[in-house]
Amino acid sequence: MRISEFCGLTLKDIDLENKVINIDHQLQRTSDMRLVIESTKTNAGTRKLPMTEDVAQCFRAIIEDREEPRFEKVIDGYSGFLFTDKDCNPLVAMHWEHRFNHMVKRYNDIYRVQMPNITPHVCRHTYCSNMAKSGMNPKTLQYLMGHSDIGVTLNTYTHLGLEDATDELRRMEDLENARKELEKNKEEKPVSQKMFRAI
User: Fold this and answer.
1) Which value, in Å, is the radius of gyration of the alpha carbons in the chain?
2) Looking at residue 78, what DSSP letter applies?
């Protein structure tokens, strides 16, 4: 999901029983520092995302660890935000970018091999690319990403190279060889009881 969709998540949006995340809004901070709820970036952005068991466990932990705020901030009718600051305001994209920068800096201060800059959008991009490389159906991936145009899914987020093309051609070759083997077996005489008669 987009970071603004993630920031807008409320307790009502997380259905742990059915393992579904409801995404029908996003949280934005305006240039004059007001918090507002907006509709998703595109019509396709309004969607229900299935959760794997790992994701469901993460959300269970997030909800259990969520401290009861002194008061529930209500923004355009929405309340119960999952992530809030000390003033009970929901965290916005910039907060998460600062957190990521802080984690990368701490890591790079300790280890010799340096980690590149990581943002929430990089995580989204990486997820999409990994799912594409693993062979996920492009239309399924388009739905999960909330893209209105599949061209965005295929062209912008899936940077595949020579190694990926080689692997895909090898996979197609293996499928073709398996098909030929099945065809060859079909041409052989079918098994019958006569074949097992004692001589």
Assistant:
1) 25
2) B
The question of whether 2 is a catalytic residue gets the answer: yes
Alpha carbon distance 146, 166 (integer Å): 29
Active site residue 124: yes
pTM of the model: 0.75
* Active-site pick, 29, 41, 66, 133: 41
pLDDT in tens, 182-199: 777 666 655 554 544 544
Q: What is 107-162 written as a DSSP string?
A: HHHH-SSPPPP--HHHHHHHHHHHHHHTT--HHHHHHHHT-SSHHIIIIIS----H
Distance CA 146, CA 153 (A): 9
* Catalytic site includes residue 112: no
Tokens 């959760």: give the residue: 51
User: Which residue(s) pair with 29 in the sheet?
Assistant: 35
> pLDDT tens across 98-150, in order?
999 999 999 999 998 898 888 999 899 888 888 888 888 889 999 999 988 88
Instruction: Please give the torsion angle defined by the CA atoms of residues 59, 62, 64 and 70, in that order, rounded to the nearest 10 degrees.
Output: -130
